[in-house]
Design brief:
A: 162 residues; alpha/beta; Rossmann fold; 5 helices; 17% strand; B: 144 residues; five-stranded parallel beta sheet; 44% helix
């Protein structure tokens, strides 16, 4: 057994196409250090969803084929999120990955879950769109950064989208 | 060979950052380099404009102290293979240049720097590197 303090890794994913890079890099890193892996998606206020565009990532096409009315159904959103994480798990091809879907404030829930699970490091992307432009996930990363007492592995994502 | 760059300032948590960064590097079989950036001498020259050569000695002296500082940390980590870089200039730029030069796999930094002004926000150097880099980073929380 190697001498490392890192035994549990939590990878935070949103629906942005950059999630694939975050998932893959986080997974590779966690595997290399022999850590247990959990992936989390936090569902926030449903109005946020209406503004996001969905591109197929890891074989998952988001809500593209559902009617808009479904977007405002919390149960459907939860189901879709679970499905998204399951797809991600299949993409990473590792059945030992734990998937977690939660509702609420992104940063708060990510940090709370990390505490509960005794996570040693959180993997998160720098931003979905543009850093510090008050887009939802960009500011989430910033908030997690400011509040976290747990080390973060930050995957730069700005160059992967145009 | 994998390589990890650990950026350290003089904050009290530097030891913790160095140790955590080192432990992570070890677990992925990576080599470790330490970097410390001293302020741009141009900033000193505004204070000591008329001191002539003394000013240059001052910068060298600052660099010597920094080298000794990294040497001590290296000693504590107990690994002779650790490379050390003491550079002068803009910290965020220099850290990224060294990271690119060494083609590191990731950069390890504290979330906050030692400067009390910078600590009002997220450490300004950390934030600046985060904004511009295309290299993954490991941020160790060190807020007081």
């Amino acid at each position: 057994m190697k001498n490392t303090e890192i035994r549990k890794v939590l990878i935070a994913l949103d629906y942005n196409p950059t999630a694939q890079k975050v998932a893959e890099m986080g997974y590779k890193f966690a595997k290399k250090i022999g850590a247990e892996i959990s992936i989390i998606h936090v569902i926030s206020d449903e109005t946020d969803f209406a503004t996001l565009e969905y591109s197929p990532i890891m074989g998952y096409a988001g809500f593209a084929d559902t009617s808009l009315s479904h977007l405002y159904n919390p149960e459907a959103m939860k189901k879709a999120a679970t499905h998204f994480l399951e797809k991600t798990k299949h993409h990473l091809d590792d059945e030992t990955i734990q998937t977690i879907v939660k509702e609420g404030d992104f940063a708060e829930i990510i940090l709370k879950t990390a505490k509960i699970l005794n996570i040693d490091i959180i993997v998160i992307g720098t931003h979905s769109r543009k850093w510090l432009e008050n887009t939802i996930m960009g500011s989430v990363t910033e908030e997690v950064l400011r509040k976290s007492t747990i080390p973060l592995f930050i995957v730069p994502t700005k160059n992967t989208i145009q | 060979m994998k390589q990890v760059l650990i950026a350290l300032d003089y904050s009290p948590s530097a030891q913790k950052i160095a140790e955590m960064g080192y432990a992570i590097a070890q677990s992925i079989d990576a080599e470790v380099a330490l970097v410390h950036v001293v302020l741009d001498p141009a900033m000193y020259s505004t204070c000591y404009l008329d001191l002539g050569e003394l000013q240059l000695d001052g910068v060298e002296c600052i660099k010597d102290v920094a080298k000794q500082y990294l040497e001590n940390i290296k000693l504590k980590l107990g690994d002779d293979n650790i490379e050390m870089y003491v550079e002068e200039g803009d910290a965020a730029n220099i850290i990224q240049s060294v990271a690119h030069l060494l083609t590191v796999d990731f950069i390890v930094m504290g979330s906050h720097s030692q400067s009390w002004i910078a600590n009002k926000l997220l450490g300004s150097v950390t934030e600046s590197v985060l904004r511009h880099t295309s290299i993954p980073m490991i941020i160790i929380p060190n807020k007081k």
